[in-house]
Amino acid sequence: ALKRRADWKPLALCLASAALVIGLWGLRNQARYGKFLLAGPQKGWNFYEGLALQTAEDLERQLQMGAEAVRLGIDKDPYVQDDYFWKKGWLEVTEDPKAALLLFAGKTIKFWRLAPYPPHPRAVRWAAGAFYLLLFSLALQGGIIVHRRGIRLAPVYALFLYTWLVHTVMFSGLRYRFP
Questions:
Q1: Phi then psi for 120, rounded to 5 degrees?
Q2: Phi, psi dihedrals of residue 114, rounded to the nearest 5°
Q3: I want to staple 115 with a disulfide (CB 3.0 to 4.6 A). Which of 8, 14, 51, 125 is the partner?
Q4: Left, alpha or beta for 37 (phi > 0: left; psi -120 to 50: alpha)?
């Protein structure tokens, strides 16, 4: 039992440090803007922007969102703008949940692809695909080895899961993806 407690000390220290830094930022936002926000006011914008499957229309969607914010007079207040696009995004999801699930599934497939899409030359796509296939294979092998040795990998798995979910739900441009 004593060894188990010692295993939690680094995790507890990491969580306490993160809570302190993020909590202080949230308190700063509370004092400055009247809202306890843990990060900047971009959740709504990114969520609504992410309701597209990375196409040429994505840039147009961003421009349309910006123009809509100006037209509604909410472009000067990032928090009002964030709330507006958050609600608008959820309305779109709740109006057609099946389409939203299909969109998220498509974005998941794009997230985990091994090779980049055109306009990259075919040789570059094949080389990148082979490199990442080898890289993921070695990572999988390493994961199996450390798992067999009893090393806990939950934080690593949590990072992969978090990154995948953030991309799948929030972003259309592949800013957070492997490879």
A1: -65, 145
A2: -90, -25
A3: 125
A4: beta
Which H helix or E strand runs over 58?
Answer: helix 57-72
> CA-to-CA distance for 79 and 30, rounded, in angstroms?
12
Report pLDDT for 138.
86
Say which range, 17-21, 80-84, 88-92, 147-151, has the weakest mean pLDDT: 147-151
- The model carries a pTM of 0.58
Tokens of 48: 């609504």
* CA gap 42, 39 in Å, rounded: 8
Q: How many helices (H) and strands (E) does the chain have?
A: 7, 0
Over the range 149-169, which residues count as b (16 or more CB within 10 Å of their CB) and which as e?
eeeeeeeeeeeeeeebebbbb
